[in-house]
Write a structure and sequence with these properties.
2 domains, 5-stranded mixed β-sheet, 33% helix
């Protein structure tokens, strides 16, 4: 059983390497990588009671418990995501300061998980976790990455300064 998950994590990191050769996980030994769980952060600004926006953040393990050849979104979200934050919008600080603080704390925790890891109680097994992706709906990604473009802004593209749809359509 132990060898199965070690081999699975090793395969993931070898397949991940060509696209991300500078990822910090490759500073770890081969042995440590075989115990490193690849995770994504999933963010969504859904609606709660009375249609009040609610920020939901969760870790999502990239390889599901059902195995590496299964989709991680084929089961209930309770089995594929680990809730870390639930924050109603009426608790937000001005200018998304609370979201920024949550992301800083999350980054600190993720750094600790990669650098130090955790030891499973009663066993001499240390696991690590490595952040590999951020996913979510567009409103969440705009807040997480402090993007100025989107369907609620005049700016169309977050990479350039195009703000007029007519200019955009003429150039492209």
């Amino acid at each position: 059983m132990v060898d199965d998950y070690r081999a699975m994590f090793s395969r993931f990191w070898e397949r991940f390497r060509p696209g991300h050769p500078d990822h910090p996980v490759y500073q770890k030994s081969v042995e440590q990588r075989s115990s490193t769980i690849p995770i994504a952060i999933h963010g969504d600004e859904g609606r709660g009671l009375a249609k009040v926006p609610v920020l939901v953040l969760a870790y999502q393990v990239m390889i599901p418990y059902s195995g590496e050849n299964k989709l991680n979104s084929s089961k209930h979200s309770y089995t594929t995501r680990l809730l870390t934050t639930l924050l109603p919008s009426n608790w937000y600080a001005k200018k998304d300061a609370s979201i920024n603080a949550i992301l800083q704390a999350l980054a600190h925790d993720l750094t600790q998980l990669l650098d130090v890891g955790i030891t499973v109680c009663g066993k001499q097994q240390r696991f690590y976790a490595a952040y590999v992706a951020c996913k979510g709906d567009w409103p969440w990604l705009r807040k997480a990455y402090a993007l100025y473009s989107g369907f609620t802004s005049k700016r169309i593209c977050h990479l350039c300064d195009v703000s007029d749809p007519l200019i955009y359509s003429d150039k492209f």
